[in-house]
Amino acid sequence: MKYAKRVAILAAFITISLIIILYNSLGFKDYESLKDHSDVEESISQIEMRLANIRESVHKSASVLPNFPEIKRPDKPKEEFKLPAPDQTDKFLETHCVSPRGELSGTRISETYEEIAFNDIDGGVWKQGWPVTYDESEYTDKDPLEVFIVPHSHNDPGWIKTFWDYYNSQTRNILDNIVDILTENEQRRFIWAEISYLDLWWKEQKEDRKNKFRKLVLNGQLEISTAGWVMNDEANTHYSSMIDQLFEGHQWTRDNISPNFMPKTSWCIDPFGTSPTMAYILNRAGIPYLAMQRVHYEVKKYLARQKRLEFSWRQSWAVGTQDSSTDTFTHLFPFYSYDIPHTCGPDPKICCQFDFKRMAPDRLTCPWGINARAIDNNNIQERASTLVDQYKKHSTLYGTNKLLIILGDDFRYQTYSEAHAQFDNYERLFQFINSNKDMHTKIQWGTLNEYFQAVMKEKNQLIESGSPKIESFQPISGDFFTYADRRNHYWSGYYTSRPFYKEMDRDLRSHLRAAEIFYSLARIQDTTRMEGMYDMLVTSRQNAALFQHHDGVTGTAKTFVNNDYGERMLTSLKNCENVISQSTQILMGHHSAENIIFDIDEHRVKQDGLPQRITIDTGSEDRYVVFVNSLGHERRELVSIRVNSVQLAVFGPSGENILAQISPAFDFPFQLRDDAFDLYFEITVPPLGASQYKIERREKGKSQVTVSKLYFHNHAEFKSNTFTTEPISDSEISFENSYITATFTRNQATLTAVHSSEFNTKVIIEFLTYISNFNSRDDRSGAYLFIPIGSAKIFRDMNSPNVFVQRGELISKICGRFLYLTHCSSLIHTKSIEATSVQFENYINLIVDNEEVVMRLKTSVKSKGENYFYTDLNGLTVQRRKYHSKLGIQGNFYPMPTLAYIEDINTRVSIHSKQSLGVGSLENGCIEVMLDRRPIYDDSRGLEQGVTDNKAIVGKFRLHVEYSQQGIKEANSELSFPSLVSQITRESLQNPIFKLVMKAKALGADSKYSGLSLPLPCDLQIVNIRALSPQDPTKSESALILHKFIYNCELPTTGIPFNHCGNQDADGVDITKLFSKQRLVEITHTSLTMLQEMKPKVKSSIANFDSIDIKSYKLTFATNISQ
């Protein structure tokens, strides 16, 4: 074999040398000297003739290599992407990389954790606070307490009932009653949030009823707050899904309420912890105000003591600067819940008496033993005084004399009598309080917007007067995870609950994004043939948006409700597959085909089943596969397709022979297939593009693919006619490529170390289980809560798995099968970005009750500071975490939507995840990722069931070890960013390449397509190209959403091809040049969800970005209309 390699190298050297000689001898010194094309053609012909002679000589020289195929092997890029030197390009570092900051101003939420004892002191009637008092002299005729009462009804789009069941039995009536009760009296107010329900109601209404609703919205009586499709979860959701559901709601209001409709506030009372990502998205959508509820009770108490419950929520990258452009003014409710007993003031026993649904003893009652009473002349003075006392105590927690009181609960105002009971009794109280000036209180119905406008007016007055009260409005940065509502009841379980549907959500997200982008591009080419596809997109958008609900993607709904979400997502996945296939068909030039000619390689048959792969019958005909890339950069990646033969050859878009590898196919958990094989080869796909590859059947003995070699341990010996098999003799197994070497232990089939020429990092993978607490009814793990009994224990059969190893030229893999878990690790041997990481797949089918399974990474990294680690926030930014023993195990787990990492002065270890999961770092140098959980009991948060409907799932991860010789500096105590390699890896994992198997032979089609004329800069991503509703067939309108990010420039850019990125030094991106292949006729810069045009209007095609940013542009293209 060594001799054969030497001959091949010698032959290659001779060939290159002769080509250079030919090049010079033919005078190719100056292309301008060639007067016409005939000179070029004659010269090329001469080269071809001479190369033919050279090839024949080379083949004779290599005759010692029988059946030596002319195969294109993966090459190292001519040059890898390099970051500019810091002393050469200060502007580059300023706009693309982490930069040091000065002293920070304002409050960081992480700092409050250092100061708070978390000792849950009983505060009396306000259990989680303190005995609140007030000074009556603070309220005067000139400066009275001004109270805004805001009626609301929180409607979950699925939880205990399905979305449809809730609407039919409750929400329809609520919306009917809102219209009627507000129409009776123009002084009355109400707020609504969930557009998904409003859409169902709207479809049933006659035009006069719709006009009544519109009038109520436009005259300010009925405020639509946030106007998202749902009130989305903020822990598990990807930022692009947050945008999508908000976009869907906003476009609905524009189309149905008014073209000029613009929500002014956001209503976030039920998501279980809140993220600055959502605040930023609201900011970019033009919504300046936010009201929220669920924050750790001790953090609320801390902020209330300082009158800091209203603040400007500032993004982490803007902290320490004067930049307030990312701020969202936020109101945080202080008490336990958003229901009426916990909103009027600190004493729920008293507040409950002013919930006038609780008047009849045979209906809803107050748990404190005293129910509400109707207001009459006999009790009005006492009732009014009692209520105002609570209001004044409540107001002491804020910095102004304006007070926001919300009046409602889940699915309230279902009956007309309930609505009248609330409005009539409060109006009697209003009249009495407002007419008694000695109460120094003004009370009225209000909306959120009316309240915030009043607060802003007083805030400006405080600024003008130089009042010290203005200090209460200082900026706050950070997130509000992990939420606890009482004692040590941390809501960290839902970060992982029902991971099957969390993965399905990400699958749908990538499908929907690709369908949106390629539909938008295809509609420009052929409007007629894309008819009908838009309705599929709308259905898919709305189903995907519905699942972002805070009881959807969280995994906290009833089993049958989850199944309903699953069926909706399955329908949407199939719709997206059709749109992607049809769009690709048009873009690749298959104009003659009437029907869809592609099958998607991986597809779901059932809502509760894993994706299934197509086995391509290579038979006697050549087969074609089109690979589709939805990202704005060229991708070189290793792919696999399943085939039924090993006698094959693979050819690229230009007809070049591609190196391929045959490996055994096996289905999880550990079932080797004898009727199918996995065919691996590396592909190159242009940005927003597609590439076609041919799979050619060869006669026996003439195959041009390499064959994996198989090894096994602790497994019954198996025979194969295709593969060489033998037992594993060594105790350690190593895989190596051009960048790293990964070492595994034979007995456990798990990683032990990753090293290169620059570093040697211990990374030991372990699987452990926590036991769910079930001993006490009040302290149980459940869908929401994670409350373990003690520390995690090593997996029961960690030392006796069945081990399987495959080695190949393109990819090597090791798998270990445990009790209900199969763990596989892979290393790719190409020279590409994906070869810089170790890839993991965890098949898990959890069947043991009250177990919560984690994958632990034990590394040699010495975590910075006091056990610091980092997790991402919705795939947008990164938040530093710190282990606090006072929070217990459950309080030290955080959401990991896509990424977590630990680092020391030189080394960073990152774990990327395809789906959202919970993560913690309980020991220095360790990361724990929770994979699945099966607590069988209810955790007393309303679901009334445990989580025992686990599905088999395959979780996909990538492990990066990155080393910096100059050291990883902290820009400041909070700010951190992934490396560029890590950012690209994350985008690749979240947006996999689609594999479209052609049903019939291609006829007259193109072998490559790209929707972009230029690749995007490395730090710019296309969030979406979202098609707008088709109006005029001669033009196509889409929303282009771009995301500019910052990355860590101290870490290497290993594996990134030089041509991967566009111009790194440009101040902006010319959108016209990006889409020069299409007839782009107009560009308009808008707010994020396109409800507003940005001012001042600038007719420019340049998209400018400073630091991190997300921007939207309305693109108008001229279309081709099919005859």
From TrEMBL:
Coiled-coil regions listed: none
A family per Pfam: Glyco_hydro_38C
GO cellular component, one term: Golgi membrane
Key word Transmembrane helix present: yes
Domain Glycoside hydrolase family 38 central, chain residue ranges per copy: 489-569
EC number: 3.2.1.-
Keyword set includes Membrane: yes
InterPro entries referenced in this protein's UniProt entry, alphabetically: Gal_mutarotase_sf_dom, Glyco_hydro/deAcase_b/a-brl, Glyco_hydro_38_C, Glyco_hydro_38_cen, Glyco_hydro_38_cen_sf, Glyco_hydro_38_N, Glyco_hydro_38_N_sf, Glyco_hydro_57/38_cen_sf
Catalytic activity line of the entry: N(4)-{beta-D-GlcNAc-(1->2)-alpha-D-Man-(1->3)-[alpha-D-Man-(1->3)-[alpha-D-Man-(1->6)]-alpha-D-Man-(1->6)]-beta-D-Man-(1->4)-beta-D-GlcNAc-(1->4)-beta-D-GlcNAc}-L-asparaginyl-[protein] + 2 H2O = 2 alpha-D-mannopyranose + an N(4)-{beta-D-GlcNAc-(1->2)-alpha-D-Man-(1->3)-[alpha-D-Man-(1->6)]-beta-D-Man-(1->4)-beta-D-GlcNAc-(1->4)-beta-D-GlcNAc}-L-asparaginyl-[protein]
Signal peptide: none
Gene3D superfamilies in alphabetical order: Glycoside hydrolase 38, N terminal domain, Glycoside hydrolase family 38, central domain, Golgi alpha-mannosidase II, Golgi alpha-mannosidase II, domain 4
Cofactor note: Binds 1 zinc ion per subunit.
Cofactor requirement: Zn(2+)
Enzyme kind, highest EC tier: hydrolase
Matching SMART domains: Alpha-mann_mid (SM00872)
Source species, domain of life: Eukaryota
Entry-linked PANTHER family: ALPHA-MANNOSIDASE, LYSOSOMAL ALPHA-MANNOSIDASE
Known role: Catalyzes the first committed step in the biosynthesis of complex N-glycans. It controls conversion of high mannose to complex N-glycans; the final hydrolytic step in the N-glycan maturation pathway.
Family: Belongs to the glycosyl hydrolase 38 family.
Protein name (record): Alpha-mannosidase
